Protein backbone atom coordinates (compact mmCIF):
# COMPACT_ATOMS: atom_id res chain seq x y z
CA UNK A 1 0.00 0.00 0.00
CA UNK A 2 2.96 2.31 0.64
CA UNK A 3 3.87 2.25 -3.04
CA UNK A 4 0.37 3.20 -4.17
CA UNK A 5 0.14 6.05 -1.66
CA UNK A 6 3.55 7.31 -2.76
CA UNK A 7 2.54 7.33 -6.42
CA UNK A 8 -0.72 9.15 -5.69
CA UNK A 9 0.96 11.80 -3.53
CA UNK A 10 4.17 12.21 -5.53
CA UNK A 11 4.64 15.80 -6.75
CA UNK A 12 6.13 14.73 -10.12
CA UNK A 13 4.08 11.65 -11.04
CA UNK A 14 0.52 11.18 -12.26
CA UNK A 15 -1.20 7.87 -11.60
CA UNK A 16 -3.08 6.87 -14.77
CA UNK A 17 -3.98 3.24 -14.13
CA UNK A 18 -4.04 0.55 -11.45
CA UNK A 19 -3.98 -3.23 -11.77
CA UNK A 20 -5.43 -5.30 -8.92
CA UNK A 21 -5.05 -9.05 -8.39
CA UNK A 22 -7.57 -9.34 -5.54
CA UNK A 23 -11.19 -9.58 -6.69
CA UNK A 24 -12.46 -7.37 -3.86
CA UNK A 25 -10.27 -4.47 -5.05
CA UNK A 26 -11.36 -4.53 -8.69
CA UNK A 27 -13.72 -1.62 -9.37
CA UNK A 28 -12.51 0.40 -6.38
CA UNK A 29 -10.94 3.83 -6.62
CA UNK A 30 -7.17 3.85 -6.10
CA UNK A 31 -7.59 6.43 -3.37
CA UNK A 32 -10.02 4.22 -1.47
CA UNK A 33 -7.60 1.29 -1.68
CA UNK A 34 -4.72 3.45 -0.44
CA UNK A 35 -6.72 5.16 2.30
CA UNK A 36 -6.57 8.53 0.54
CA UNK A 37 -9.05 10.84 -1.18
CA UNK A 38 -10.65 9.53 -4.40
CA UNK A 39 -8.47 9.84 -7.51
CA UNK A 40 -10.83 8.84 -10.31
CA UNK A 41 -8.49 5.94 -11.16
CA UNK A 42 -10.38 2.66 -10.91
CA UNK A 43 -8.59 -0.64 -10.24
CA UNK A 44 -8.91 -3.24 -12.99
CA UNK A 45 -7.59 -6.65 -13.96
CA UNK A 46 -7.76 -5.78 -17.68
CA UNK A 47 -4.12 -5.74 -18.78
CA UNK A 48 -5.05 -4.72 -22.32
CA UNK A 49 -6.77 -1.59 -21.05
CA UNK A 50 -3.71 -0.67 -19.00
CA UNK A 51 -1.39 -1.23 -21.96
CA UNK A 52 -3.58 1.05 -24.07
CA UNK A 53 -2.90 3.93 -21.66
CA UNK A 54 0.63 4.25 -23.04
CA UNK A 55 2.03 5.11 -19.62
CA UNK A 56 5.65 6.19 -19.27
CA UNK A 57 6.32 3.69 -16.50
CA UNK A 58 4.85 0.64 -14.76
CA UNK A 59 5.56 0.29 -11.03
CA UNK A 60 5.24 -3.46 -10.52
CA UNK A 61 4.82 -5.00 -7.06
CA UNK A 62 4.00 -8.64 -7.78
CA UNK A 63 5.26 -11.37 -5.44
CA UNK A 64 8.39 -12.78 -7.10
CA UNK A 65 9.50 -15.60 -4.81
CA UNK A 66 8.60 -18.98 -6.37
CA UNK A 67 6.63 -17.35 -9.21
CA UNK A 68 9.42 -15.75 -11.20
CA UNK A 69 8.14 -16.88 -14.60
CA UNK A 70 4.71 -15.35 -13.96
CA UNK A 71 6.20 -12.02 -12.90
CA UNK A 72 8.44 -11.90 -15.96
CA UNK A 73 5.41 -12.64 -18.15
CA UNK A 74 3.47 -9.83 -16.42
CA UNK A 75 5.99 -7.10 -17.31
CA UNK A 76 7.10 -8.20 -20.78
CA UNK A 77 4.02 -6.81 -22.64
CA UNK A 78 4.60 -3.39 -21.07
CA UNK A 79 8.29 -3.34 -21.97
CA UNK A 80 7.47 -4.41 -25.52
CA UNK A 81 4.96 -1.55 -25.72
CA UNK A 82 7.64 0.96 -24.70
CA UNK A 83 6.58 1.34 -21.06
CA UNK A 84 9.50 1.41 -18.65
CA UNK A 85 9.31 -0.80 -15.55
CA UNK A 86 10.46 -0.21 -11.98
CA UNK A 87 9.97 -2.91 -9.39
CA UNK A 88 11.26 -4.38 -6.13
CA UNK A 89 10.15 -7.81 -7.30
CA UNK A 90 12.30 -8.95 -10.23
CA UNK A 91 15.29 -9.87 -8.07
CA UNK A 92 17.33 -11.35 -10.90
CA UNK A 93 17.72 -7.81 -12.25
CA UNK A 94 19.51 -6.50 -9.13
CA UNK A 95 22.83 -7.53 -10.69
CA UNK A 96 21.55 -8.56 -14.13
CA UNK A 97 24.93 -9.78 -15.36
CA UNK A 98 24.70 -12.51 -12.71
CA UNK A 99 20.93 -13.11 -12.71
CA UNK A 100 19.44 -16.37 -13.91
CA UNK A 101 19.43 -16.18 -17.72
CA UNK A 102 16.00 -17.78 -18.07
CA UNK A 103 14.53 -14.69 -16.39
CA UNK A 104 16.99 -11.96 -17.36
CA UNK A 105 17.09 -12.91 -21.06
CA UNK A 106 13.38 -12.44 -21.88
CA UNK A 107 13.30 -9.08 -20.08
CA UNK A 108 16.41 -7.86 -21.90
CA UNK A 109 14.87 -8.90 -25.23
CA UNK A 110 11.59 -7.13 -24.40
CA UNK A 111 13.50 -3.95 -23.49
CA UNK A 112 15.24 -4.06 -26.85
CA UNK A 113 12.03 -4.64 -28.80
CA UNK A 114 10.16 -1.83 -27.05
CA UNK A 115 13.00 0.62 -26.49
CA UNK A 116 12.22 0.54 -22.76
CA UNK A 117 14.19 0.21 -19.54
CA UNK A 118 13.74 -2.02 -16.49
CA UNK A 119 15.09 -1.41 -12.99
CA UNK A 120 14.80 -3.51 -9.85
CA UNK A 121 15.30 -1.63 -6.60
CA UNK A 122 14.24 -2.23 -3.03
CA UNK A 123 15.86 -2.48 0.35
CA UNK A 124 17.87 -5.70 0.34
CA UNK A 125 19.04 -6.72 -2.17
CA UNK A 126 19.16 -3.23 -3.61
CA UNK A 127 19.52 0.10 -1.86
CA UNK A 128 21.20 -1.07 1.35
CA UNK A 129 23.44 -3.73 -0.15
CA UNK A 130 24.72 -1.73 -3.12
CA UNK A 131 23.38 1.84 -3.28
CA UNK A 132 24.05 2.79 0.35
CA UNK A 133 27.22 0.71 0.53
CA UNK A 134 28.81 2.43 -2.44
CA UNK A 135 27.72 5.82 -1.22
CA UNK A 136 29.83 5.08 1.86
CA UNK A 137 32.71 3.77 -0.23
CA UNK A 138 33.00 7.17 -1.91
CA UNK A 139 34.81 8.17 1.29
CA UNK A 140 36.96 5.04 1.57
CA UNK A 141 40.64 4.48 0.88
CA UNK A 142 42.20 1.02 0.95
CA UNK A 143 39.46 -1.60 1.26
CA UNK A 144 40.32 -4.89 2.97
CA UNK A 145 36.75 -6.15 3.36
CA UNK A 146 33.14 -4.99 3.40
CA UNK A 147 30.40 -6.38 5.62
CA UNK A 148 26.67 -5.86 5.03
CA UNK A 149 24.16 -7.29 7.52
CA UNK A 150 20.37 -7.17 7.56
CA UNK A 151 18.93 -7.64 11.04
CA UNK A 152 15.23 -8.18 11.60
CA UNK A 153 12.80 -9.31 14.30
CA UNK A 154 10.02 -11.04 12.38
CA UNK A 155 7.81 -11.70 15.41
CA UNK A 156 5.44 -8.98 14.21
CA UNK A 157 5.40 -10.16 10.59
CA UNK A 158 2.00 -11.51 9.60
CA UNK A 159 2.82 -14.00 6.84
CA UNK A 160 3.47 -17.56 8.04
CA UNK A 161 4.40 -18.67 4.52
CA UNK A 162 7.20 -16.10 4.48
CA UNK A 163 8.69 -16.99 7.86
CA UNK A 164 8.34 -20.69 7.06
CA UNK A 165 10.44 -20.20 3.93
CA UNK A 166 13.20 -18.95 6.24
CA UNK A 167 12.88 -22.10 8.35
CA UNK A 168 11.20 -20.59 11.38
CA UNK A 169 9.12 -22.97 13.52
CA UNK A 170 10.72 -25.96 11.80
CA UNK A 171 13.07 -28.52 13.42
CA UNK A 172 16.62 -27.30 13.99
CA UNK A 173 18.03 -29.43 11.17
CA UNK A 174 15.52 -28.14 8.59
CA UNK A 175 17.04 -26.97 5.30
CA UNK A 176 15.04 -23.83 4.52
CA UNK A 177 14.28 -23.12 0.84
CA UNK A 178 15.52 -19.54 1.21
CA UNK A 179 19.07 -20.75 1.90
CA UNK A 180 19.30 -23.96 -0.08
CA UNK A 181 17.19 -23.31 -3.18
CA UNK A 182 17.50 -21.13 -6.27
CA UNK A 183 15.00 -18.58 -5.00
CA UNK A 184 17.19 -17.18 -2.24
CA UNK A 185 20.70 -18.16 -3.22
CA UNK A 186 20.23 -16.91 -6.77
CA UNK A 187 19.70 -13.25 -5.96
CA UNK A 188 21.91 -13.12 -2.86
CA UNK A 189 24.91 -14.68 -4.55
CA UNK A 190 24.36 -12.44 -7.56
CA UNK A 191 24.40 -9.44 -5.21
CA UNK A 192 27.81 -10.51 -3.86
CA UNK A 193 29.08 -10.96 -7.41
CA UNK A 194 27.68 -7.55 -8.34
CA UNK A 195 29.50 -5.90 -5.42
CA UNK A 196 32.70 -7.61 -6.56
CA UNK A 197 32.19 -6.30 -10.10
CA UNK A 198 31.79 -2.74 -8.84
CA UNK A 199 34.94 -3.15 -6.72
CA UNK A 200 36.82 -4.47 -9.75
CA UNK A 201 37.82 -7.79 -8.18
CA UNK A 202 37.54 -11.41 -9.29
CA UNK A 203 36.00 -13.86 -6.85
CA UNK A 204 37.60 -17.28 -6.40
CA UNK A 205 34.43 -18.67 -4.85
CA UNK A 206 31.34 -17.85 -2.84
CA UNK A 207 30.65 -19.74 0.37
CA UNK A 208 27.40 -19.93 2.31
CA UNK A 209 26.82 -20.89 5.95
CA UNK A 210 23.53 -21.14 7.84
CA UNK A 211 23.26 -21.08 11.64
CA UNK A 212 20.03 -21.79 13.53
CA UNK A 213 19.05 -21.04 17.12
CA UNK A 214 15.97 -21.78 19.24
CA UNK A 215 14.32 -20.73 22.48
CA UNK A 216 13.16 -23.10 25.23
CA UNK A 217 9.57 -21.90 25.49
CA UNK A 218 6.56 -21.54 23.20
CA UNK A 219 5.77 -17.97 22.16
CA UNK A 220 3.18 -15.92 20.31
CA UNK A 221 3.86 -14.14 17.02
CA UNK A 222 1.78 -12.24 14.50
CA UNK A 223 2.12 -15.21 12.14
CA UNK A 224 1.01 -17.80 14.73
CA UNK A 225 2.37 -19.85 17.63
CA UNK A 226 6.12 -20.43 17.84
CA UNK A 227 7.18 -23.74 19.35
CA UNK A 228 9.99 -24.32 21.82
CA UNK A 229 13.01 -26.09 20.37
CA UNK A 230 12.23 -25.10 16.78
CA UNK A 231 14.11 -22.53 14.72
CA UNK A 232 13.60 -19.06 16.21
CA UNK A 233 16.68 -17.32 14.78
CA UNK A 234 18.71 -17.70 11.59
CA UNK A 235 22.04 -16.21 10.59
CA UNK A 236 22.92 -16.71 6.93
CA UNK A 237 26.36 -15.58 5.79
CA UNK A 238 27.28 -15.43 2.11
CA UNK A 239 30.99 -14.71 1.65
CA UNK A 240 32.88 -13.67 -1.47
CA UNK A 241 36.51 -14.82 -1.47
CA UNK A 242 39.17 -13.19 -3.64
CA UNK A 243 42.87 -14.04 -3.71
CA UNK A 244 42.27 -16.62 -1.01
CA UNK A 245 40.86 -14.07 1.45
CA UNK A 246 37.25 -13.22 2.37
CA UNK A 247 36.47 -9.77 1.00
CA UNK A 248 32.66 -9.44 0.91
CA UNK A 249 30.42 -10.59 3.77
CA UNK A 250 26.67 -10.51 3.25
CA UNK A 251 24.57 -11.54 6.25
CA UNK A 252 20.92 -12.04 7.08
CA UNK A 253 20.23 -12.15 10.82
CA UNK A 254 16.55 -12.88 11.39
CA UNK A 255 14.69 -13.67 14.61
CA UNK A 256 11.13 -14.46 15.62
CA UNK A 257 11.89 -14.18 19.35
CA UNK A 258 14.10 -11.48 20.91
CA UNK A 259 15.84 -13.95 23.25
CA UNK A 260 17.04 -16.20 20.43
CA UNK A 261 20.79 -16.07 19.67
CA UNK A 262 21.55 -13.17 22.05
CA UNK A 263 25.22 -13.07 20.98
CA UNK A 264 24.40 -12.43 17.31
CA UNK A 265 24.07 -8.99 15.73
CA UNK A 266 21.19 -6.77 16.92
CA UNK A 267 19.55 -3.77 15.31
CA UNK A 268 20.59 -0.32 16.49
CA UNK A 269 18.89 0.95 19.68
CA UNK A 270 16.71 -2.16 19.97
CA UNK A 271 14.81 -1.44 16.75
CA UNK A 272 12.74 -4.12 15.03
CA UNK A 273 15.04 -4.09 12.03
CA UNK A 274 18.12 -2.45 10.64
CA UNK A 275 21.31 -2.66 8.65
CA UNK A 276 24.96 -2.63 9.59
CA UNK A 277 27.68 -1.83 7.07
CA UNK A 278 31.33 -2.18 8.07
CA UNK A 279 34.29 -1.22 5.88
CA UNK A 280 37.65 -2.55 7.05
CA UNK A 281 40.69 -0.84 5.57
CA UNK A 282 42.32 2.56 5.81
CA UNK A 283 40.21 4.26 7.02
CA UNK A 284 37.84 1.74 8.64
CA UNK A 285 34.31 2.77 9.53
CA UNK A 286 30.90 1.40 10.46
CA UNK A 287 27.35 2.63 9.98
CA UNK A 288 24.06 1.33 11.35
CA UNK A 289 20.48 2.15 10.37
CA UNK A 290 17.47 1.43 12.60
CA UNK A 291 14.06 0.67 11.09
CA UNK A 292 10.65 -0.59 12.08
CA UNK A 293 9.19 -3.47 10.06
CA UNK A 294 6.90 -0.96 8.38
CA UNK A 295 9.80 1.33 7.52
CA UNK A 296 11.75 -1.52 5.94
CA UNK A 297 8.79 -2.54 3.80
CA UNK A 298 8.13 1.10 2.87
CA UNK A 299 11.71 1.62 1.66
CA UNK A 300 11.39 -1.51 -0.45
CA UNK A 301 8.56 0.17 -2.37
CA UNK A 302 9.88 3.73 -2.34
CA UNK A 303 13.38 3.06 -3.67
CA UNK A 304 12.19 1.98 -7.16
CA UNK A 305 9.43 4.60 -7.15
CA UNK A 306 11.97 7.36 -6.55
CA UNK A 307 13.95 6.00 -9.51
CA UNK A 308 11.11 6.47 -12.04
CA UNK A 309 12.31 9.75 -13.57
CA UNK A 310 15.89 8.47 -13.89
CA UNK A 311 14.72 5.19 -15.43
CA UNK A 312 12.51 6.96 -17.95
CA UNK A 313 15.44 9.17 -18.98
CA UNK A 314 17.91 6.28 -19.30
CA UNK A 315 18.93 4.37 -22.39
CA UNK A 316 16.86 1.23 -23.08
CA UNK A 317 17.85 -1.98 -21.33
CA UNK A 318 18.15 -3.50 -17.89
CA UNK A 319 19.63 -1.02 -15.41
CA UNK A 320 21.79 -2.13 -12.50
CA UNK A 321 22.00 -0.41 -9.12
CA UNK A 322 24.80 1.96 -10.14
CA UNK A 323 23.69 2.58 -13.72
CA UNK A 324 21.48 5.52 -12.75
CA UNK A 325 22.38 9.01 -11.55
CA UNK A 326 21.65 9.72 -7.91
CA UNK A 327 17.90 9.85 -7.22
CA UNK A 328 15.93 10.66 -4.10
CA UNK A 329 12.52 11.67 -2.79
CA UNK A 330 11.24 15.18 -3.49
CA UNK A 331 8.01 14.72 -1.53
CA UNK A 332 8.78 17.44 1.01
CA UNK A 333 5.91 18.36 3.34
CA UNK A 334 4.92 21.92 2.53
CA UNK A 335 4.22 22.65 6.20
CA UNK A 336 7.33 20.92 7.53
CA UNK A 337 9.00 22.67 10.43
CA UNK A 338 12.38 24.31 9.88
CA UNK A 339 14.91 23.45 12.58
CA UNK A 340 17.62 25.95 13.45
CA UNK A 341 20.46 25.54 15.88
UniProtKB/TrEMBL annotation:
Residues 140-326 form the 2,4-diaminopentanoate dehydrogenase C-terminal domain. It holds the Pfam family DAP_DH_C. It comes from the Bacteria. This is 2,4-diaminopentanoate dehydrogenase C-terminal domain-containing protein. It comes from Mycolicibacterium hodleri.
Amino acid sequence: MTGLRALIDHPEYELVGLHAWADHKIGLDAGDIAGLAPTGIIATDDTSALLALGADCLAYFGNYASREAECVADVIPFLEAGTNVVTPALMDLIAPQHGRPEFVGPIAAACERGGASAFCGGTDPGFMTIGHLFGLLSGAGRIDSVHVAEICDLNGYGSYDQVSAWGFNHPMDYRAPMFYGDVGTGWHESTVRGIADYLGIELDEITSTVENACVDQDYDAAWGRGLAGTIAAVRWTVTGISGGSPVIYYKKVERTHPDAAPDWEHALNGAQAGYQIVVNGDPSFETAIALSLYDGCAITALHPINAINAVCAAEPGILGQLDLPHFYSKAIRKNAAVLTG
